Amino acid sequence: MTAVLQTRTLVKRFGGLAATSDVSIAVERGARHALIGPNGAGKTTLINLLTGVLEPTSGAIALDGVDITRLSVHERVRRGIVRTFQINQLFGGLTPLTSLALAVSVRRGKSAGWWRPVGSDAAVAAECDSLLERFRLAEVMDQPVHALAYGKRRLLEIATALACQPRVLLLDEPVAGVPEGDRQEIFETINALPGDVSILLIEHDMDLVFNFARFVTVLVNGAVFAEGDVASISADPRVKAVYLGEDEARAGAPGG
Amino acid sequence: MLTLLFDGVAYGMLLFVLSVGLAVTLGLMNFINLAHGAFAMAGGYITVMLMNKLGVPFLACLPLAFLGSALLGALLEPTLYRPMYAKPHLDQVLFSIGLVFMAVTAVDFFVGSMQQNITLPMWLQGRLPIAAVGIGRYRLFIIVICALLTVALQWVLSRTRFGSRLRAAVDDPRTAGGLGLDVNRIFLLTFAVGSGLAGLGGALGAEVLGLDPTFPLKFMIYFLIVCSVGGTTTITGPLLAALLLGIFDVAGKYYVPKLGAFFVYTLMIVILVVRPQGLFARAGGRA
Amino acid sequence: MTAASSLRHRARWRWWELALFAALPLSWWLLPAQSLLLNEIAITALFAVSLDLILGYAGIVSLGHAAFFGFGAYAAALFAKDVMPEPLLGLAFAIVASALLGLVTSVLILRGTDLTRLMVTLGVASILYELANKLDWLTGGADGLQGVVMAPLVGRFPFDLAGRTAFAYSLVVLAAALFVARRIVHSPFGLSLQALRDNRLRASSIGLSVRLRLVAVYTLSAAIAGAAGGLLAQTAGFASLDLFDFQRSADVLLVLVIGGTGYLYGGIFGAIVFKLLHDLVSDWTPQYWNFWLGLFLVVLVMVGRDRLIRPWTWFRSAR
Known about the structure:
- The complex is a heterotrimer.
- Chain A is of the alpha/beta class.
- Chain A folds into two domains: 1-80 and 166-256, 3-Layer(aba) Sandwich (Rossmann fold); 89-165, no CATH class.
- Chain A has nine helices and eleven strands.
- In chain A, the strands form two sheets. In chain A, strands 7-8-9-4-10-11 form a six-stranded mixed sheet, with helices on both faces.
- In chain A, helix 3 (96-107) packs across helix 4 (122-134) and helix 3 (96-107) runs parallel beside helix 5.
- Chain B is mainly α.
- Chain B has helices spanning 2-29, 36-54, 58-81, 89-111, 137-159, 161-171, 173-178, 183-209, 215-230, 236-255, 262-274; strands at 127-128, 135-136.
- Chain B has a two-stranded antiparallel sheet.
- By secondary structure, chain C is an all-alpha fold.
- Chain C has a domain at 33-244.
- In chain C, helix 3 runs antiparallel to helix 11, helix 3 (35-57) packs across helix 13 (266-284) and helix 12 (246-259) packs across helix 13 (266-284).
């Protein structure tokens, strides 16, 4: 089994609170790996640790066996670890086209060019065209991002991540706030990603998890609670208790 | 040496009283108020006017300076400042620069640009014969008053309900509002008291720091140093920063007068580069 | 529209840009009597454009940009007095010196919040002021460096009292700087700066090295500000302490804000309006220009900066 992204006893403390406790997980090559757990379980913290937004208190992270614990955020992106944010993090003053053009340019190593205009590289433009098509952003490609509708912004969020051609894609609740009808479409796009892209997905919508994932890690209170393939996790009574307990307490609460 | 230390501590405590309002405003409303010095200047000029024109005794002027500046702050906060809190920092900077310019030129116009002098009451002049050199009475007075104020502030913050509301609002105004705290009233009171303290500091400092219309601009950088080095999440942070600043400035100007304030600016830059959140800031909260 | 055509469309020369570039030499030709005034405007414009690069494009709020302006002025003045009075070499020296200063100080603005950056930029300008003040054997101290006399430009055009050569000189430098800045702004690098400004977290999350870019743009901005300062020293004939003053940093900030940030030409429009207003108001109330300036700032911010350059929104209520 070839693990492409691995953590070893990762710990993150904020003062006295351990947001991440001794987490050792492995994301396999080509994985469709879901990360689930009740609210406050530390899922986003884990993603922040994996991407370098947060520094771990202790423990290590390795990509293809190479230790990357000390690498900065952008260096990890250059090595292929890309994420989307649960709350859209976009460039408000740019347009979908320029946002994607930038991401593509960075990936192609063209982002330091200071003399020739952005549109002069035909390959970059062609990639932008295809991304805009795939994510149905072509009609709004020149509108300022801050003026876009939420659904389009979410699509742009994911398109931006894909523009980086990730080897490991970390998705933090990709369909959060997206209307029912559009969710499936987003998932199909993610599903259509090449088989060698390894995907780790945080998601609350269980239907989507079970349709998409092949392996599940359950995180509770910052620690790994259970792991296994989809069938065994969905049948695990302890997992159900953790969720049922939470569901009962939040009966009627909207969202996931 | 001892005199230097003493003078530095007096200077530092004065800077603290002058700056604490700014630190809290920054921490609470996340507003960079470069015009803070104008409230200090107001207190100073109120004192000068009262003493020189109306013969009001010095001690009586101090609370009046506090009240005057506090009132000014209470008037300006809901009308001018409040709409600014949500604006980007650049706008806040421009706005407060505008206010400072207006205040400085207005004072120049009405009162003239000469430095204002006050005569301290007899019992505050001269030195007390303590230790070999003697301690300046006025500086001792400043230290005592400011120390009392600091203790009072700390007490209010940690022992009263207003204090805990204020601390909650500094940590997270949205949650505080959601819990039913009247955040606007807290802002108003805090801003008024902070301005009042600045005014008191201006009154106390008129003799030591020099009072003329350029006061807010001259000392702006010092107030900002106290806030950025001391952090804005505690009271003790700015206090320690102010003391550090006071001592180093006095010592620097004494030992290396050729360099003047260069020493202090460099120190500030070094500190901010090494610890951008300030020397004494608590983790969490906003910078 | 395809991506390629849209991007090309974005970078094309607008008619008013061409008109602006044409207006530069036209103003020299048509207004010979105003050369001194126009020269001041051109220098201020260049200074403001340099600030736009870091403020409008990279989002760095600086209260001490005058540090580079003054540094360039003193560098050029010292070069002319102590090395040789050749203007172009002196200007090159000023640019390189300011760029180095920018490079060194750029490290200081990388970390921290807006407040920290404000403090650090203010601190650097204050330090330079103090140094210029105290190192009087080099800088002339409070008197500044007087009597800077320049050799003829490219050996052929002496600097005349009417300022025609000076203005032409400044215009050429301004035009060159604008042209280069324009290429930068439309390039991938320029786009990455705007991304940095909008969302630093996202910028690093697509693989951009935030620090390197900030250092690069800060150095460039310092170089251009130094060029403006150098031009001032060379054309006015002196360098003085007030070039490092807070007032100078605040003024250039205001010039840029009046003209509008983030589209590169705001510095020019702002400089024109600011200078004209300044001369107008100073005739009327010479001492209290700052009061009206302050009032203008307060009103400007309360009404909303972006509405200034759209007069049709002035009397509508805010959205």
